[in-house]
Amino acid sequence: MLDYLIAAMSPLNILLALLGVAAGTIIGSIPGLTATMAVAVLVPVTFAMSPDSALILLGAIYTGAIYGGAYAAILLNTPGTPSAIGTTFDGYPMAKKGDGDLAVSVACLSSLVGGIVGALALLLLAPPLAEAALAFGPVEYFWLAVFGLSLIAALSTGDFLKGLIGAGLGILIAMIGISETSAEVRFTFGSNTLLGGIETVSALIGLYCVPVLMELVARPERHLEQPEQSRGFRLPEAVAIMLREKINLLRSSVIGTLVGALPGAGGSIAGLVAYSEARRTGRGEPAYGQGNPGGIVATESANNATVGGGFIPTLVLGIPGTPPDAVILGALLVQGVRTGPTLFSEGSSIVYTFIFGLFLATLLMLPVGLLIGRFAYRAIVQAPKAGLVPVVAFMTVIGSFAIRNSLADVGVMVVLGMIGWLATRRGFSVSPIVLGLILGRIAEEAFVQSWTIGDAMGNVAGQFFGRPLSMAIIALTLLSFIYPFMPRIRQIVTRKTPLEIAERVTASPAAIARDLVGIGVMAAVAATALVQCASLNPEAAVFPRTISIAMLVFCGLAALNAVVTRHVVEDRSDGSTPRRLGVPLAMAVGVMLVPVLGFACAGIVMGLALMVCAEHERRSARSWALLAGGVAAIILAFTLGFREILSVPLPGGRLF
Question: What are the residues facing 178 on neighbouring strands?
C-alpha cells in the first residue's frame, strides 16, 4: 500500500488533483453546470495520460464540482448542482443574516469529512458494499424515492397539504415527454419541444433562481447583509459547529456512501435523505429551514460521500453508481481499463493509486474551497444589485442552454420560474415541487417495474410490502413523515391547544378567495392530467393517474381546510410588482433575440434591461456607463469561456 501512496503523491498527480479540484469547484458553482458536465467536458484531456493519473484528475474534478454547487446554493439560493438542493434550505437563510462566510466554511469542512468517509469506504469496503447494492431491486428504489419525498413533511409544516400538492405537481412535470417505461408520449399537448421532457437541472434553476431574482429587484434593500468588517474564513466557529454536529456529520456521510453505492441514485437523493434524517433528529435554534448549519452539514457531507460510494459499483461491478461515474467509466474503457471484480487484483496499481489520489483531492479541497468560497462571498456581497442581477440571470440562461444545447430548455426555465414565483405567493413552497420533479421519474420507473413483476407473479401487494429491505425503508419513511408532527400530536392527546393554532390570525374573505383560486388551479392541472391519462396505455398511465387522483384529494382537503379553519398560508411581501415581472420578461426577450443577435449580444440586451429593473437609486451617466460596461464585459467573458474552453456550441447571430 505504501508504494501506491507514494505513486499518488507524485508531483504530477498532486498538480492534477489541485487543478482538477479548482476546475471542478468553479464549474460546479455555475448554475446549470453539473458535476457530470464538468467531468464530461474535461475527459478528452485525460486521453494522453496514464490510467491512474487520468482517474485522479477526473475524481478531483468530480469532487470539486459536487462541493462547488454549495456556493450558488448558499449565496444565491440556487443549487449549482442538483446535489446541493438541501444546502439552499439553511445556507441561504444564513447568508441573508450575514453568515454566508460561515456557511461556506461549514460546507467546505462537511464536504471534506464526507469525501474522506466515502474514500475510506472505497478503500476498505468496496466488495461487500457492491454486493449489498445488488440487493436493491425496483421496489427498494421505489420506496427509497418515497423516503426522499417524506422530506415534504419537514419542509411544509406551515401547510402540509400544500406541500403534498406541490410534490404532486413536481411529479406530473417529471412525467412530461416520452415515458421511459413504455415509450409513449405524454402531456406534450402536441408540442415537439416537450418530447424530450423537462430537463431537470434547467427546471431547478428556474424554480429556485428566477423567483429569487424577481424578489431581488422588487425592493431597494441589499441582497445580502454586508458585515461591518472582514471576518476571514471563520474556521474556529465552523469547527465548533462540526464538533456539535458530529453525529449528524458521520450519519450523513454514511448515508451518502450507501446511497452513492446504489447504481443511479446520486448525490441529490443522498443529500435529501441525509437532510431529512438530520431535521428529524435535530435540536436547537434556529429551526431547520431557517438557517440551522446542521442542514448544510447533512447535505454537503452526504453528497460528497457519494463520490467515493459511487466508485464502488463502478470499479467493482462495472455499473456506474452516479451519472459522473458513467462518464469516468467510459474514459477508462477508452484507455483499455476493464472494470469488474478482477480489477482490484489484476489492476491493483491503478485502483489503489487512484483511491489514495482521491484522498489527496479531498484534502486539497479544503484550501481551494475556502479560498474560492471567500472570493465568491466577497464578490457577491459587495456587488451592486444592478450588476449582480443581470450577471446571475445570464449565468442561468447560458447554464441551462449548455446542458442540452437547447434554447427551448431556457424558455422552459423562465416559464417554470414564473410558476415557482406564483406558487410561492400562494403558499406552495418550491422545495416540495423540486422534490417531486427529481424523484418522480425514479419513483415511476421503479413503481411500474415492481407492479409489472408483482402482476406477473399474481401478488402485487407482496411485491411492494413483502421484502424485508422494503419494510425497513417503509418504516423509516413513516417515521420521517410523522416525526415533524409529534409535538402537535402530543398536544392533541393531552387536549392542549397547539400554540401555533392559538396564535393563528383569521384570514379575510379576500385571502380565503385567493387561496381557493390557487388550490383550484392545482386541481385543474391534476384534472387535466387525469383526462390525458385516459388515452395512454396502462403502463404509461398507472403512475400519473395515481398522482393526479391523490392531488385532487389533497386539493379538496386543502380547500375544506381553508374554509373551515379560515387559515391561509401565502406570501404577501411588499415590493414593486412591475419590477418583478420585468425579470422573466427581459429573460424571455433575451432568449428570443438569440437567433437574431447571437448569444452574447442578446445577453447584453437582457442584462441592460435587468439593470434598469434592479436599480432603485439615481446614478450619474458615468456610473451607468461603467456598470453597463462591466456587465457587458462579464457576459462576453462567459460567452467566450463556454464557446472556446468548454466547447459549447452557442448559437451565433448577425452580431456575436
Answer: 185
Q: Give this prediction's pTM.
A: 0.81
CB of 634 closer than 8 Å to CB of 618: no
598 neighbors 408 (Cβ within 8 angstroms): no
- φ/ψ of 260, rounded to 5, equals -60, -30
186 three-state secondary structure: strand
Give the H or E element holding residue 358.
helix 348-382
- How many whole angstroms separate alpha carbon 185 and alpha carbon 171? 16
Whose CA is closest to 530, among 187, 226, 37?
Answer: 187
CB 390 within 8 A of CB 607: yes
pLDDT per residue as tens digits for the range 240-264: 999 999 999 999 999 998 888 877 6
Burial 254-266 (b: 16+ CB within 10 A, else e): bbbbbbbbbbbbb
CA distance 305 to 271: 10
Determine whether 269 is exposed, middle or buried from the number of CB atoms within 10 Å of its CB (0-12, 13-18, 19+).
Answer: buried
Q: 401: closest CA among 40, 649, 121, 89?
A: 649
Cα Rg, the chain, nearest whole Å: 24
Q: How far apart are the first and last CA of the chain?
A: 54
Grid cell, residue 254, equals 454514511
CA distance 329 to 387: 41
